[in-house]
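Now for a typical sample entry:
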Amino acid sequence: MIQQRQNFDWLLKELYDGVPGIEMIVVLSADGLRIARYAGDPDAADRVAAACAGLQSLAGAVAQEIHSSDGEMNLVMIELNGGYFYLMSAGANAYLAVLADVRCEAGRMSGMMRDLVVRIGAHLTSPPRRNGQTV
């Protein structure tokens, strides 16, 4: 059920167990590479991670248009037919993404994601890459 590079299993499981309706949790780098996942198909997690890279870039571009904003994306939530998608900044060059069905409570989800990021944010950072290699 878990595919990971670091030992996030109990932390991601805690989020999974704490909010009804979660279908997949993905931790990803800013360039769209999956760092860890809980639940869901590994190939789907890779696709979600890649899509999130574009979404966080888009959110950052929009944030720059808000005069009082520092241009950084904190949380993106998308309501879909049949569920929700959440993407939260989780440290330098790292993000936490969650897909959930309609049973999910939006406030509970964002609160638990925020708590998880606060607890392990330093561990969710992804070093910058150049030409596919860690710098």
Notes: DSSP finds three helices and eight strands in the chain. The beta strands are 2-4, 22-29, 34-38, 75-80, 83-89, 94-101, 129-130, 133-134. Helices lie at 9-18, 42-63, 106-120. Residues 42-63 form the longest helix (22 residues).
